[in-house]
Design a protein that fits this description.
It comes from Epilithonimonas mollis. By secondary structure, this protein is mainly β. It has helices spanning about 1-15, 215-225; strands spanning about 20-25, 35, 45, 55-60, 65-70, 80-85, 90-100, 110-120, 120-130, 135-140, 145-150, 155-165, 170-175, 175-185, 195-200, 205-215, 230, 240-245, 245-255, 260-265, 270, 280-285, 290-295. It has two helices and 23 strands.
């Protein structure tokens, strides 16, 4: 259990790397089991599917422990039901998610579906269309591409990259393979609405491991990334942090993700004698951004 908590804490802190947000629905991210509606700005638009059909559950994840499971009430909705949240309006960005669908010959789905929401006026950028028949499409109002068939009960990683400025296109990736590139619709000024949609016709799906990234900021972060060394590691009394940058703050988190210690920013040599033995994550805040390192107190 301690190892799992440490891995979750690492993932949680990594989600705050400049330009990238990770949503894995874990307790350490502030999510609770039960309906996801109302948590972290997730909401639904539906005719008659109750909030209880959109739950944070444990033990059905592709990453960590938790995920969101969407279940059908078998009451077909002619207008699609949307589980969605607002996302930042980046010039160039990518968004990905792991999804698993329940069964064939039931619901239709549009997953990882992106829109430009302009004060309630929606323009569709595109998404992945999992049809009840088993066909899978990369789809938008501009065009679509047949990607073959999908398999129920299998995890798929979906990713979309959108460039609003230079190429003005949308790229679709299925399990990390580029499968389609399309022009971006002229009405999609800035994609800002992330949706997972279905028609509630007898089957549901699971979503996990959502990653939203500002591609411009990530590119800058990669160029300015500094090499950080922590020694000795493991250590019992003092550690030294070596980095070619000014350190603004150093924070120690335990395996459960709780902040345990904040060190003074004016010294690279830090007294860790008061820490109990175990695994820690060190968050090092510099002028270039935030880096995290694993550390063992012996």
């Amino acid at each position: 259990m301690k190892k799992n908590l440490f891995l979750l804490a690492t993932a949680f802190l990594s989600s705050y790397i400049a330009g990238q947000q990770k949503i894995s629905f874990e307790t350490i991210e502030g999510y609770n089991l039960g309906t996801v509606v109302g948590q972290k700005e997730w909401t639904v638009k539906t005719d008659n599917v109750p909030n209880s059909s959109f739950k944070v559950v444990t033990g059905k994840a592709s990453d960590g422990n938790n995920s969101v499971e969407v279940t059908s009430t078998n009451d077909y909705t002619e207008n699609f039901t949307y589980l969605f949240k607002k996302i930042p309006e980046y010039n160039r960005f990518s968004v990905s998610a792991d999804v698993k669908l329940e069964k064939l010959d039931s619901s239709d789905y549009y997953l990882l579906s992106l829109y430009y929401n302009n004060n309630g006026n929606y323009s569709w950028a595109g998404g992945f269309n999992f049809m009840y028949s088993g066909k899978l499409y990369a789809d938008s109002d501009v065009n679509f591409k047949d990607l073959g068939s999908w398999i129920p009960g299998k995890w798929y990683n979906l990713r979309i990259e959108i460039d609003h400025v230079t190429e003005k296109n949308i790229k679709y990736y299925l399990d990390n393979q580029l499968v389609h590139t399309s022009a971006l619709g002229s009405k999609v000024v800035r994609a800002n609405d992330l949706n997972f949609e279905f028609d509630n016709d007898g089957s549901g799906f699971i979503v996990d491991n959502i990653i939203i990234a500002d591609m411009d900021q990530l590119a800058v972060a990669d160029l300015s990334k500094k090499q950080i060394n922590i020694f000795p590691n493991p250590a019992s009394d003092f550690i030294t942090i070596k980095i070619d940058d000014k350190i603004n703050a150093v924070k120690f988190y335990n395996a459960a993700g709780s902040l345990i210690k904040t060190a003074q920013a004016n010294s690279s040599k830090i007294d860790i004698s008061s820490l109990t033995k175990g695994n820690y994550i060190i968050s090092i805040e510099t002028e270039s951004g935030i880096e995290t390192k694993k550390f063992i107190k012996k």
